[in-house]
Amino acid sequence: MGAAGWFLPRVVVIYAICGAVDVLRNRPLRWDTVRRYFFGNGLLTWALSPLNLLFDLLCLPYRNRGIFQLTDLPPGYQAEIQTLIDVAYSHNLVGALEAKMGEKKRGMVFFQWYGRKIETSIDIPAYTQDFKYLRTIGVSIFNKKQSTHRHYGPLRVTYRVLYNINTIDDPAVYVQVGDVVHRWRDGKLFIFDDTLQHESHNGSDAVRYCLFVDILRPSLVPWVLGGAVVLVRWTLTPVRRIFYKNWTMIK
């Protein structure tokens, strides 16, 4: 009892400080943002906040900007991302997925998930090769009038890369991170830290197809982050479907 009395208050203080530092990264900082982080779907992000802040330190001098341009990333990252984009068009990825999507509200297909190759009927060998920086390669599909709620990603060992493959000229199709709204008609590529509060919307009458990619964060110790990704894969593979329970997984 004495050990618990000494240990537990210190753990509470550490989590209170880490959670406060972490949630303050979100803009605009409103009560609903804080409430969702500590008492809603950001609870896992809070639980991992000490680890996430450690990753921020390990990634210095590569500062976490929250939202990135492609040119903010090292050349090797840019080349691998561009490879995915080029392959999506050369293999008519949207055409291959149209017949499989049907009337599903939201679909997701993975070729790799945290480095683990995923079997799928869509044969694109370039998406199942070993990459130096890419860890998750998939496609997120929103049927017309579909959206996600505001939510937080749990772990800051990777950054999220989205690329809107098909062209939709409608302002109601966008991704929002904090107070930044990125409309896909204004730019097909969007890179961000998904542990920030974000949401995605397709308010149009067209189906939206986005490359859904996780890249290892740039770091001077990439082997540490790479090891963390492997650990995440081992830990979460048995329960992966829980994170995509609102999606139809396309094989």
Q: What's the arrangement of secondary structure elements?
A:
Elements: H1 2-23, H2 31-39, H3 43-47, H4 49-58, E1 67-68, H5 75-90, H6 93-101, E2 106-113, E3 116-117, E4 134-142, E5 146-147, E6 158-164, E7 173-177, E8 180-183, E9 189-192, E10 198-202, E11 208-216, H7 222-236, H8 240-243, E12 248-249
Parallel strand pairs: 2-12
Antiparallel strand pairs: 1-9, 2-3, 2-4, 4-11, 5-10, 6-9, 6-11, 7-8, 7-10
Number of domains: 2
* Helical content band: 25-40%
| C-alpha termini separation | 52 Å
Largest sheet: 8 strands, mixed
- The radius of gyration over CA amounts to 19 Å
CATH topology tier name of the largest domain: Jelly Rolls
Superfamily (CATH H level) name of the largest domain? B-lactam Antibiotic, Isopenicillin N Synthase, Chain
CATH class descriptor of the largest domain: Mainly Beta
User: What is the residue-averaged pLDDT?
Assistant: 92
Class inferred from helices and paired strands:
alpha+beta
Name the beta content range: 15-25%
| Low-pLDDT residue spans | none
Number of helices: 8
- Which architecture of the largest domain per CATH? Sandwich
Inertia-based shape: globular
What is the N-to-C order of secondary-structure elements (H for helix, E for strand)? HHHHEHHEEEEEEEEEEHHE
Tell me how many strands there are.
12
